[in-house]
Amino acid sequence: MWYVPIEVAVTLYGDKRVSDDRPTVQVTAVTWPGDEPEPTGRPGRSRRGRLLLAGGLAAVVLAGVGGAGAYAYAGDVPRGTTVLGAELGGRSRDEAARELRAELERRAATLNAPLTVLVGEQKAEIRPADVGLAIDVDATVAAAAEADAPPVSRLLGSRTVDPVVTVDAERLDAALRGVMGEQGREMTMPAIIFTGTTPKPVYPKPALSVDREHSAQVVTKGWLAGGQVTVPLVEQAPATTAEEVDRLVEELARPAVAKPVTLTTDKGTVTIPPAAIARGLRFSADEAGKLTPRVDVKRLRAALGDKLAAIESPAKDATMTISGGKPKMVPGRAGQQLDSAALGRDLLAVLPKADGRTVSGQLKPAEPELTEAKLGALGIKERVSTFTTRFPGGLSSPRSQNIVQAAKDVDGTVVKPGETFSLNGHTGERGYDQGYKDAPVIVNGKLVPGVGGGVSQFTTTLFNATYYAGLEDVEHKPHSFYFSRYPAVIESTIFWPDLDFKFRNNTPHGVLIDTSYTSSTITVSIWSTKIYDSVKTEYGPRRNITKPKTVHLEPGPTCIAAVGSDGFSQDAFRVIKKDGKVVKREKFSWTYDAEPRFICGPEPS
Length: 605
Known about the structure:
Blueprint: H1 47-72, E1 81-83, E2 86-87, H2 93-106, H3 108-112, E3 115-119, E4 122-126, E5 134-135, H4 137-146, H5 151-156, E6 159-160, E7 165-166, H6 169-180, E8 191-195, E9 198-202, E10 207-209, H7 212-225, E11 229-231, E12 234-236, H8 242-256, E13 261-265, E14 268-272, H9 274-280, E15 281-285, E16 291-295, H10 297-304, E17 319-323, E18 326-330, E19 335-338, H11 340-350, E20 358-360, E21 363-366, H12 372-376, E22 382-390, H13 398-410, E23 413-415, E24 420-422, H14 423-427, E25 438-443, E26 446-451, H15 455-468, E27 472-475, E28 502-504, E29 511-517, E30 521-528, E31 534-539, E32 543-546, E33 550-553, E34 567-578, E35 581-592, E36 597-600
Parallel strand pairs: 1-6, 3-11, 13-20, 33-36
Antiparallel strand pairs: 1-2, 3-4, 5-7, 8-9, 10-12, 13-14, 15-16, 17-18, 19-21, 22-30, 23-29, 24-28, 25-26, 27-28, 29-30, 31-34, 32-34, 34-35
Helix pairs in contact: 2-4, 6-7, 9-10, 13-15
């Protein structure tokens, strides 16, 4: 008869009387059949009984192991897990989040204290809140729960999980650059520029600054550790070296302007001279400092001037004119234009060559940007505002001619919904070649002769027309002196290129600018679809009135006498009504200087 003497000791250290809270299973003195002879004189047990005994004890062992496993896997966060010293193990995610927030509250004074940073040789303090330094509780708990531990570690071990720290990298970078101050330097980008037809290299130099990504890592780590954080200054070299710049000069820039290039088309041939090539050939560096050559066809066109007119026919937009008191459509037309992308690519390919400098230009249809259908859909159907100012001297005076020239330049302009109109951008520089003449302008507080004088009167007329149409004022500046021919405050001067007048079409309809003139008046009307009942101006009283002083000037052709005018401050309110209610009330304010009484002659003794 076989018997199995078994001694099993099962000890579960899991109740509250034991200080170590980790359950363990201990099994000792197991003897299997065949290891020992059956002792004599001892009552035998049946084999079945012995097996039942062994099975029962095994069940006890397995039950203990199962209880330990249940203990180890209780909660969402593995047992023994801590974050910043807070015990999160064995808890649900919500419980762990509450415990971590409580720990952060206990550490609030430390976490919110200014952080000392050393950038290069400059030291400063940064408030964590100013750069978005914070601990993401939910993300930290999720990381603690998802970073699973093996069963044995759950029973016997412990682990620390780093908190998930957030930071606003852009704000931190700005703060660190402020601390850096003049220690850093911007990257000198490589370039090749032309002086006439001579290429001049600009050699790259590395930047010295803080690295945004690395700085964020250093600061977030140092914030939790406490103490001073050292942020290093890092050199960043441009992608293109000085040697590569020299290579581009020798292999492309110099050969490019050594000879002309012949452009052939079905409609004729154009010679592109070296000076035009130099204007169109650009070497552009990206943010990393990589220098890339390209042909700027727009600049090339400008350099060629009228030479392309023989082979191209530009498209013309559809326009409107006012006839018989109603807007009338003027059809546009399609044109033919060189394929700019192909021309730039093909020209760049032949520029390094000494011979075979010929490119074939492809003409393709050029449709007008504003077709009759598109213009008709803009809803330009009625006059919504008009404004007139008077000028002295008749049409023979240079000042009057400048006003009329500006009116002609702008007449018929269509401003689409959402677009911003710029008077300087529309007319370009107003010089002698554009038909403008010398007339008085205000420079440094006095009237002097200047090309384009008088255009400010047209600007004021246009500004008021758009103002009473309810359109959005983007940029305008009243005169420094008050002129009685203009409405106070709601008037505007202009000067190329520093002072401009801009308005935005903030309506869902198109806007047509219509201009007309007589021998003594200039009128601007705005045509569109009327959306407001009325637009009116309410004035506040004049205040802070100042009197002019008398100034004697040296007589001569540049001296312009003036009778002078009072200075004052005043407010004007644009009141816009729709459906019988005030929907907008805008305040415009200005302070006029007292215009001196200028006398061309010496002061009396």
